[in-house]
What we know:
By secondary structure, the protein is of the alpha/beta class. Helices cover about 45% and strands about 15% of the residues. The protein has 21 helices and 15 strands.
Amino acid sequence: xxxxxxxxxxxxxxxxxPGTEELLSKEMVTAYVGIDPTADSLHIGHLCGxxxxxxxxxxxxxxxxxxxxxxxxxxxxxxxxxERNLLNEETLRHNVACIKEQLSRFLDFDSNEPNxxxxxxxxxxxxxxxxxxxxxxxxxxxxxxxxxxxxxxQKRLNGEARDGLxxxxxxxxxxxxxxxxxxxxNKNCKLQMGGSDQWGNIxxxxxxxxxxxxxxxxxxxxxxxxxxxxxxxxxxxxxxxxLSREYTSPYKFYQFWLNVSDxxxxxxxxxxxxxxxxxxxALIAEHQEDPGQRKLQKRLAKEVTIxxxxxxxxxxxVEASGILFGKATKDSLLxxxxxxxxxxFNGVPQFEVSREEVEAGxxxxxxxxxxxxxxxxxxxxxxxxxxxxxxxxxxxxxxxxQTLTVADLLDNKYLLxxxxxxxxxxxxxx
Length: 430
């Protein structure tokens, strides 16, 4: 596979330094993408860069994932309106360990192949580098004029940031440039890749290599991913969509991809999956014939959920989706963990009742009219129950005055009440 051709049809090239394609065609190339370890999980905003490394390895080249343990202590001004919080060493170590585990789902770190992936941490080569040594060995090669001309610096200096640009942030491009120089000298790394907002920092690295060693160095960036309506990709009302199940449940993760627009699904399935071109083209053609089937979204959600989580998590997410929109059973409900249950029924009316009232046993009619305002009157509830229109935990209520106890609770805490086909209510027993 030709890496540049692969990225081109997938819509994943924004800018590429002249000579990059020629280099890739003549040898196995080592390239890196930098990952900022400011959290203990990656989010889907990182996925484009990670997929570049994944495609790079599939094309026979050697990927390096660089965790910015040192630069994470500084903060990158690119695209930011304010300086980020600086992290301590212990937090960084924890974050790096978590990110390593997530990356191993995308890249092969363990084979004996010459192009097996490696994970490097710039803290390893920066921690003993003194300021004086850095100023003498690196700082003298790049002029302030060159650094000032970068877009990321210009934007901050031209009033986009309330507090201007700190010296710490100003030096960021030199630190990132030194990473490239170090990897070039120690790992024979000739290519740095990243998002288009990183072009200035990446080219500082190529310039530093050229001026210090005269070595070959190239740059390639992918576009910053947006939504078709111009909104920010990967942001929801509750914030980032994370790869860690601790922050975004597999169900919620699956739902994010399932609910993207048709236009976005066409772009995202190329960028965020490894499906071949002919299969994607066929899926797009099928989808355009009958958009209501949402075949693109379903396949996109399947591929990304399995890649990030597992097939088991994907199957559970599909089953959980059926609870709201299909003919699910009580068994389906019992399989849900608490986080998924709350995600599935996020937005449905919720009522809290005390445990004491349920422990002693309470008639459903009293619970659903007096303690939780699901029905306006006992008469209305009786009528709907007799018609088979009321369910508790996906089982039809046989009598409107049936006694409910803690034995009926899901996770020893919840009752799911369904009124008619579409109206759900969640009773939380505390």
